[in-house]
Amino acid sequence: MSAKPELTILLAAPRGFCAGVVRAIDIVEKALEHYGQPVYVRHEIVHNRYVVEDLKRKGAIFVEELDEIPDDHRPVIFSAHGVPKSVPAEATSRHMFYLDATCPLVSKVHMEAARHHEDGHEIVLIGHAGHPEVVGTMGQLPEGAITLVETVEDARRFMPRDAAKLAYITQTTLSVDDTSEIITVLLERFPAISAPHKEDICYATTNRQEVVREIAHHCEVMLVVGAPNSSNSQRLVEVALKSGARDAMLVQRASELDWSRIGRPERVGITAGASAPEILVEEVADAFRERFEVTTETVQTRTESVSFKLPRQLRQAAAE
Prior knowledge:
The chain has helices at 19-35, 49-58, 86-93, 104-118, 132-138, 152-157, 176-189, 203-216, 231-242, 259-262, 278-291, 312-319; strands at residues 6-13, 39-42, 60-63, 76-78, 98-100, 122-126, 146-149, 166-170, 221-225, 247-251, 267-272, 293-300. It has 320 residues and is an alpha/beta fold. The chain has 3 domains: 6-17 and 203-300, 4-hydroxy-3-methylbut-2-enyl diphosphate reductase, catalytic domain (Cobalt-precorrin-4 Transmethylase, domain 1); 19-103, Rossmann fold; 105-189, 4-hydroxy-3-methylbut-2-enyl diphosphate reductase, catalytic domain (Cobalt-precorrin-4 Transmethylase, domain 1), CATH 3.40.1010. The strands form 3 sheets. The protein has a 5-stranded parallel sheet with strand order 10-9-11-1-12, sandwiched between helices. It has a 4-stranded parallel sheet with strand order 3-2-4-5. Strand 2 (39-42), helix 2 and strand 3 (60-63) form a beta-alpha-beta unit. The protein is flat and about 70 Å long. The mean pLDDT is 96.
């Protein structure tokens, strides 16, 4: 029997779950614990099929809209991506008990948007059309108050009502580099534009992109464990390719590994999007161990210690 080829896996750190995702999953699990089954969740709580299926097994029922919920007396949870203001308003009109799992860093963007609107500013939102976070943020204000800008070309074409009364905010899960290019264009065209007090792209997105930049140029292949509808995971693939990886691919789990495309590399990088659990990273690494003689090296660029409180209703229920 021939010996396995040697392979070094460069494991990115930090990777995987961020504090907002941990909080959102905890909210669903603790709601099931305190209020029993079923608990309804509007939209995927986070963009990861494994996580969603696990919560389904525990008694969560996922819906896209509140009108799919037959029982107004059961708890409903809003996803980590945030929701338009119309959603809690509808829940209140139906006297539903709801828990908001919106990531606090997304809520910060919502508050920024409201503040700019109150100050009479027209708002530019840098983000991706149709993403739940973007839908939720634009839904905080009346139609027309926020203009979505997706690309540098959009930024060049945008014509404000009054360049002196302009502000920008961003989706939290964007590519730091791409967003910087768009902001540069906006600043060149509209020097008076108001910026966020603190960058909107969240710490976890920034940190995961930073370590991929560090690893990618050392790798023939960079693997990102995450879901196709996860914005931050898709951005990690883009960052890896821009940073020198020969190839980069997104996989949800080991069964999706394309071995003919991977070939026989000497170095593979592995990271995970902010909504991908560590068990799936281990599964991918184990798949390589079956085919290669693997040496694993962890490349760490940051240490994360962020955590977010659960909603007051759950903290009170736990104390009772």
